[in-house]
Design a protein that fits this description.
Layout (H helix, E strand, L loop, with lengths): L8 E9 L2 E6 L3 E6 L13 E7 L2 E7 H4 L12 E7 L2 E7 L1 E9 L3 E2 L13 E6 L4 E5 L1 H6 L12
Parallel strand pairs: 2-11, 5-7
Antiparallel strand pairs: 1-2, 1-8, 3-6, 4-5, 6-7, 9-10, 10-11
């Protein structure tokens, strides 16, 4: 089924956390790298694994499994770090793997149901209903900019 020309579409990078699949705006993705053990920072939130040196830039690394209160990940050869550009910062998020870049039309997006969770609904854009799977679309800017993250002091766009 082809999207009509006037239908807004967006591209998302699909990644896995356990058995669930999530999507983030591809325009926020700088690169995808293999996982390397970060240097732990004292007093950081549990989900902030530490920092790595990315070509001279110190980048905080967030484990999305821990952020979403999922089971602890076993970091293996499939584990990746997705480097994101958010505001004037680069942040890395750990995922179990990436699958592909998916073009999603507006009519494929469904509202996120109101659920009690550790992550507020404002951090989710929608649930994309695709032919053979569902993709939870994240508002990665809001998710990484929240006060509980401790990564930014001001609002980021």
């Amino acid at each position: 089924m082809q999207a009509q020309e006037n239908t807004p579409i967006s591209e998302f990078l699909a990644f896995k956390l356990g058995t669930e699949e999530y999507g983030i705006d591809i325009l926020r993705v700088q690169e995808v790298r293999s996982f390397e053990e970060p240097t732990r920072m004292a007093h950081a939130e549990r989900f902030i694994l530490g920092v790595i040196n990315l070509r001279g830039l110190i980048v905080p690394i967030v484990d999305m499994r821990l952020k979403f209160n999922l089971t602890q990940a076993n970091y293996d050869d499939m584990t990746v770090v997705i480097m994101l550009n958010i505001g004037q910062r680069v942040i890395g998020i750990v995922a179990d793997g990436v699958s592909d870049v998916i073009t999603i039309a507006q009519e494929q997006m469904r509202p996120v149901p109101e659920l009690s969770s550790s992550i507020g609904n404002e951090h989710f854009l929608a649930i994309a209903s695709l032919e053979d799977r569902m993709l939870i679309l994240l508002d990665i800017v809001k998710l990484m900019s929240g006060q509980e993250m401790g990564l930014f002091s001001d609002s980021v766009h």
